[in-house]
What does this fold into?
Amino acid sequence: MKKMKLSNLYLWVVFILLYVPIIYLVMYSFSKGDTMTNFQGFTMAHYQELFADTRMIQIVIDTLLLALLSSLIATAIGTLGALAIHRTTKPLMKNTVLSLNNILMVSPDVIIGASFLIFFTALKIPLGFGSVLLAHIAFSIPIVVLMVLPKLQEMRQSMLDAARDLGSSNAQILSRVILPFITPGIFSGFFMAFTYSLDDFAVTFFVTGNGFSTLAVEVYARARQGISLEINALSGVMFIFALLLVVGYYFIQEGQAKRKAHAKKGGHALEKTH
Amino acid sequence: MKKSSTNVAFYVPYVLWLALFVIAPLVLIIYQSFFDINGHFTLSNYATYFSSGTYILMTFNSVFYAFVITVVTLAISYPTAYLLHYTKHKQLWILLIILPTWINLLLKAYAFIGIFSQNGGINTFLSMVGIGPKQFLFTDAAFIFVASYIEIPFMILPIFNGIEELNESFVNASRDLGAKWWQTFTKVIWPLTISGVKAGVQAVFIPSLSLFMLTRLIGGNRVITLGTAIEEHFLVTMNWGMGSTIGVVLIVAMFIIMFLTGERKKKRGRRA
Amino acid sequence: MKKLISLTVAVLLVVLGLAVWSAELQKSQGATGDNTLNLYNWGDYIDPKLITKFEKETGYHVNYETFDSNEAMYTKIQQGGTSYDLAVPSEYMVEKMNKAHMLLPIDHSKLKYLNTFNPDVMNRSFDPGNKYSLPYFWGTLGIIYNDKFVKPGEIQHWDDLWKPQFKDNIMLVDSARDIMGFSLVSLGKSMNTTDAPTLQAAKAKLDSLAPNVKAVVADEIKMYMAENEAAVAVDWSGEAADMMAENSHLHYLVPSEGSNLWFDNLVIPKTAKHFKAIYAFLNFINKPENAAQNAEYVGYTTPSAKAQALLPKSVREDKQFYPNEAIIKRSEVYKDLDPSVVGLYNDLFLEFKMHRN
It folds into this structure.
């Protein structure tokens, strides 16, 4: 009992630590001042400023559009890649491909951005939404592979053999056995790809052009004169939105899982892992 | 016949990506690293890197800070992931661990500047309890703290996934056989979750080698890493050759780390 | 499987919705392609109200894109794939871009306000006759001090920064040319020095400043100084103006032995397409009342003499921001140095940053 309390306390401390800067940001979005020190009385002015800023709203929409689309495509390609790597039997080949896979994750953003820029211009791909989308897909694929691969390795060969013995075709095995089993990995891959896309500044900066901009690039540009609290207000809005989305999604999932479990009662070892 | 055709369909998009976005840029970087600032072919970039005290010291600094950041992150993340595993809504909590990473890094850095500054939250508190203001910004401790803060979610997630795969019956068996908690942990839990830890270490250590934004914002440029140098060569001196050389060194370092962790995995497999 | 498909469809639907919304917003802002002006500028370096006013007056739509360093801008324009109509490089970069044939000449016959510029800032060595560039803002490099910690008169020369009472209390701007530059000036050398031994000497002198240096930072320096985080800073005049607007204890001075004169300039890169819009914009932004409004927003020194006359008296007569001829004479403009020398400046500066006592 005592141990339980201590561990809860630890988790609380970690969560508070993770959220302190964000609470701090949101708190100052209500400050009358214009810097993030010395809180100076409550105001909603920064929110009004934000909602009147069409350029900012446009950028937020474009950023979300880009993040969703790029992570969707990256998840598809990355999952296929993980399946391909999983099927490779030669260890040398496997290790080489995995190392190549990780190169983009370890290279500093500036190098990736600069080399993508040279690459796109060499191919005469115009800079803008398209080039940024390609770049985001490219640097999100490795994380998807890394998220899906462990799930594939966890899968027992006996399961596949059983399915094959029952006369399933390869396509059926893939859609009925493999994909459902690795779905949690695919979801985390999508989630991480989305995170990477939202967070990226340097690569986007190099490969964007012709008026297309993302939130990160805009924030860096505006930071030159000190970050205006309008950006804090935006972070506040986006954060609350994301929080509601995540919590809402989770409880809908939970509800469905419970109803299913209720309906079936037992024999649902696979369902449990979503 | 059919089997091979589905195989090809799997490979095509991924291999295409490997070729276009990994191998092509990699070749480009290696190619660039053999040219000096005036565009002449040379090996001098590598000679400079390995003979100049500055770059050696910088490499040492980078490895040292990345190591400390990884250790701090791991020390905080492992218990977190472990305890999360036993909570009721663990999937929700893990999502909430990732959520802070959706807020722009620069904004979080500015929030930390606000918290650590002379008139900031911590110093106001310290003054109130009578200790008086202390210098936090531009210290190694602040830099390591903020860098670890940024990396923690990327460490917790793989460890959490590793612990999720842990077969609970091993733990119970160990307990039933009368093992102490600590014995169960070192003999059963830790070895079985080591792959998650390795993934986490890779995800944190390697990017930490080339941090650059935080070194300036929080470290006040008193911490100089290889990332700072690359940034400078690409964006200030436009000496892409030297920048690429450092990039090649980083990529080789990554290969070495991957090779080391990969090999150990195999050994474990053989033993089991 | 079903879950994967339904989620994919859901994401695609959201993407579609966002795309429609984005296109609507784009349309409502009046962008059609032909009547646009692609402006490539530093972040937050123009009064947004002026952009709106320009769009209303002329019917052109402005695409405002930003960069955060001259070199990053250079790389993007050099690589092509973009269609910037106007860019705002600093003086040495104008010279570099011109050498690389990346600029188009400005047709002076299409400019209405060429005669309103301050003659001190025209026809400088980086672009004789202003064939390729028009000054946008200009200023100096100097010292900012906080009168809470520093008595007026305590700092007058670059050498005063080395005084032991400023231990751990000076912030430097993260720029190799500027920091090496003031060390050179304090040694009585030129800011455009190219010989290695002199540069080594300047770096050695900087190393002895290290105990006084609290941090080497970039844009954040403004926030730190406004929050009394350090007593002294070395930064550009424009940045100083921003800090002083936030904190009345701050003062700016240019050491009497001279400093750097910098110019940010409007140029037409070779990627330009919308020439009518370009000249409409050049005439709009250099119209004295607009230039004055812009100077008030940005807080930097305007190159337009007529605009200067429109500014509040306290501003236009401030000697630190509208320096007299004597300061201008003693100050130097950066030349575009050979890449290997630029490399040396940066390597030495990096070594200085790594130097710890």
Residues 266-274 of chain A have pLDDT under 50 and may be disordered. Chain A is about 80% helix and 0% strand. The longest helix of chain A spans residues 229-264.
